[in-house]
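Key result, reporting period 2: structure in, sequence out.
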């Protein structure tokens, strides 16, 4: 049990370092209207610190966006139009409820669903459907974007602390 906790802590620290390296830590970095978030904040605290929307200068024009992926480009609906806000100018939260959060990390072009409450399988299915709807893509194109599902260790000690692909992408999720 102690080994699992230690491994989870190491993974979380490595992910945090990777995000900082990818984003580039520059003190006051960020787009106009973004709010810096202190290290160690929970996902809920982070969401509560975001801006109350996105200004027109932050929003890419048009109804669609083209997102590059290792499998080629994927055209999606412009999710900035329904975004909750931007964190530090690089993290776009475009869906949030009490059970999950869906983010787009501009630094590495990745989509992340974070499960905030259980039951995990039901919440994951709802969040995945929301992702497909907001992006206006089918399952195959969603998988090409390599999105991940994050389950915090505090929610489930057995599968938490790791990221998984969407349930309909291979390999299978929890």
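The corresponding designed sequence is given below.
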């Amino acid at each position: 049990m102690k080994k699992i906790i230690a491994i989870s802590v190491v993974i979380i620290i490595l992910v945090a370092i990777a995000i900082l390296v990818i984003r580039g830590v520059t003190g006051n970095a960020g787009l106009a209207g973004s709010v810096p978030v202190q290290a160690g904040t929970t996902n809920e605290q982070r969401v509560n610190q975001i801006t109350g929307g996105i200004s027109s200068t932050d929003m890419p024009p048009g109804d669609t966006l083209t997102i590059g992926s290792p499998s080629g480009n994927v055209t999606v609906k412009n999710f900035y139009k329904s975004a909750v806000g931007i964190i530090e100018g690089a993290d776009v939260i475009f869906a949030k409820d009490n059970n999950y959060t869906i983010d787009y990390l501009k630094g590495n072009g990745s989509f992340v669903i974070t499960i905030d409450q259980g039951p995990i399988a039901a919440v994951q299915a709802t969040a995945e459907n929301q992702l497909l709807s907001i992006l206006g893509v089918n399952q195959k194109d969603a998988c090409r974007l390599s999105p991940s599902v994050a389950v915090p260790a505090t929610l489930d000690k057995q599968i938490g602390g790791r990221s998984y692909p969407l349930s309909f992408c291979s390999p299978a999720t929890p």
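Confidence is low (pLDDT under 50) at residues 18-53. The beta strands are 64-67, 74-77, 85-87, 91-96, 100-105, 110-115, 148-151, 162-164. This case is discussed further under Risks and Mitigation.
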